[in-house]
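fyi for ur records
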Amino acid sequence: MSGNIAQIADIRCGGDEPLVLIAGPCVIENEALTLKIADELKALCVRLQVPFIFKASFDKANRTSLSSERGPGIDEGLRILERVHTDTGVPVTTDVHEPRQAQPAGEVCQLLQIPAFLARQTDLLVAAAGTGRAVNVKKGQFMSPTDMKYVVEKLRGSGCENILITERGTFFGYGKLVNDFAGVVAMQQLGVPVVFDATHSVQQPGGSDGVTLGNRSMVAPLARAAVAVGVNAVFVETHPDPDTSPSDAANIYPLAKMSGLLASLVAIRSCCRPGHLQTP
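which gave:
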């Protein structure tokens, strides 16, 4: 099973539908830069005929250090995301960290994202489901792939009809993540589309003095492997100058390289469609 269909605005994700790109900066820095990234990604996706959902966070609530930048906050962040949606016409998504954030975020965003550390927070999942929007839950770094079935059950039991789940790496000791592609196949059996988060998968959590490190050179190889396995969407955080990003700078993928990466993923998808990769 490669996953049932999830509807995000006019985008159908799952099964033999086209590969979807979820991409944008890690955190909203300002309106002008956010719109620039959205415009460039939209133009790329139009050229390659890839359905596109823009992602940016209004708050990075799980930063390593108290002094780390977190973003503009929910009011200003949602205003900018609404501007992106109005100007580009593409669906938008953002993280919600608390149940009270779900409703206002759902009034602006067509897809709500639940961070990995919060994947088991029942009240948050119920609140996200209650918005009527599609919900994407990142698998906790501490969770087995099959444990995501309980996340899916919580959302379905709370009325959510459009569910995505995301692989973003599993803790492998301290300061390192690994990807279990056999686990991706197991997640595909849960009856919902599976997303691969190529940038958070290369994080090195807490790898430095109050800062999470990463290895962006591994983003493209892992994304290509995930598409070959048959994921329904790929998540990539991108920035024109990744080293200046206030969050996750070490693993963000350069915006200038997105064209080559996405073209390679489309090519792999054309010969490795999910329907051709069923387990015996």
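The longest strand covers residues 233-239. thats all i got for now
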